Amino acid sequence: MTTSTLRKPVISGVGQSAVGRRLGRSAYQLSLDAILEAIADAGLTPAEIDGLATYPGNAVPLNPGFNGPDLYEIQDGLGLQLNWHLATSQGPAQFMSVAAAANAVAAGLCRHAVVFRTTTEASAQGAGGRRGLGDSPFEIEGVLSWLLASGAVSAANWAAFYTQRHMFEYGTTKEQLGAIAVVERAYAQLNPNAVLRAPMSLDDYLQSRTISSPLSLFDCDIPVDGSMALVVSAPETVPDLDHHATIEAIGTAMRHRPYWEHWPDLTTMAPHDAAAHMWSQTDLRPGDVDVAQIYDAFSPFVLFWLEAMGFCGVGESGPFVGDGSRIGPGGELPTNTWGGQLSGGRLHGWGFLVESLQQLWGRAADRQVPGAEVVAVGVGGGASACSMLLTAGH
User: Fold this and answer.
1) Is the Cα torsion angle 29, 384, 270, 391 positive or negative in sign?
2) Cα 254 to Cα 263, 280, 310, 384, 385, distances in angstroms
3) Distance spanning both ends of the chain, measured CA to CA
4) Calpha distance 278→284 (Å, rounded)
5) Does residue 323 have a pLDDT over 90?
6) For residue range 21-80, what is the model confidence (pLDDT) as tens digits?
7) What's the predicted TM-score (pTM) here?
8) Alpha carbon distance 9, 104 (integer Å)
9) How far is Cα 248 from Cα 391, in angstroms, rounded to an integer?
């Protein structure tokens, strides 16, 4: 099923740098690799790029390795002549820059905008463990001061109390969480760019060490170095493009208090608002979706997104996942077909978007879902999320 593409922006190219643990390359180098590949994939040259956006941009100090290079550093390095540009650290999760670029090309502010996301968190982490927010040298104020005083020093702790609540309310099991991790590892074995590709069984998952009960090691995503880039193009450029994917709908809503522990229902998260907003922008429905690419900073986020997207009822995501066959290779709703962030590596949601395009353009090789024409993408969790519906160009 497809709908009219009138005035709907499109994605015309995608690029990806090397992705791995501690690559020893700068964020700037990785970004240029991904951006130039995306521009070439779109059949364009840097001289034709007149828009540039990233998230979050390095003007705002965040975690080491999180930000990526400065927007203007990229603009100057490639000699881009820009009509529109943006870098921002706040907005609807990791796709704020994509949503903004889509609006920019639709409004005529630019014709072809490169949007990129780069992280070198693995290198910044070094050989040590992942740091909690309690390690900050700054005085913590506001909502985080309450969380830290309660001993909840990282997102793993915050995700854990949502998971506990979901288990209490709906009978969700540890084995159902494990099915998500095992399925993603099976997909990762089909992806040569995935970080973790060794076989993993449910027993392997269940025997892994606890991180924050009920979450264990394989419930948590893997920090990596890497960059991914897209070219977002104006709809009037479609006749000149070799291929494209239409941005059918975007959901950016945040209708509740923007804090993890103040959410009115601790069995769901911000995806609830973002997905509802996305579906209000289109005639397509959950049953039209061929592939789901949904955020998994922690495995239970997949459960929250499945419910928010309407693929199953409230509280039904555990049984929906079951033993993993429904979301795994050959299942009725293939989910996170590149290995997700649990096995493919955490690029803050951008791996899902890149894989969506590979599926729509028939480039996913051994993990290709036959006849994939509609992909639902969701990123974020906790208090901020964004969802997107992409359709194959015709």
Assistant:
1) negative
2) 11, 14, 18, 7, 8
3) 12
4) 10
5) yes
6) 888 889 999 999 999 999 999 999 999 999 999 988 776 556 677 778 889 999 999 999
7) 0.91
8) 9
9) 6
* Token pair in block for residue 103: 């609006």
Burial 344-362 (b: 16+ CB within 10 A, else e): bbbbbbbbbbbbbbbbbbe
In this structure, are residues 351 and 228 in contact, taking their beta carbons and an 8 Å threshold?
yes
Q: Print the SS3 string covering the chain.
A: CCCCCCCCCEEEEEEECCCECCCCCCHHHHHHHHHHHHHHHCCCCHHHCCEEEECCCCCCCCCCCCCCCCHHHHHHHHCCCCCEEEECCCCCHHHHHHHHHHHHHHHCCCCEEEEEEEEEHHHHHCCCCCCCHHHCCCCCCCHHHHHHHCCCCCHHHHHHHHHHHHHHHHCCCHHHHHHHHHHHHHHHCCCCCCCCCCCCCHHHHHCCCEEECCEEHHHECCECEEEEEEEEECHHHHHHCCCCEEEEEEECCCCCCCCHHHCCCCCCCCHHHHHHHHHCCCCCCHHHCCEEEECCCEHHHHHHHHHHCCCCCCCCHHHHHCCCCCCCCCCCCCECCCCHHHHHCECCCHHHHHHHHHHHCCCCHHHCCCCCCEEEEEEEECCEEEEEEEEECC
Six-digit token string for 151: 């001993």
Phi, psi (degrees; rounded to nearest 5) at 229: -145, 150
| pLDDT > 70 fraction of the chain, expressed in percent and rounded | 89
C-alpha of 156 from chain center: 17
Q: Give the pairing of strands 225-233 and 112-120.
A: antiparallel
Residue 4: its pLDDT value, please? 43
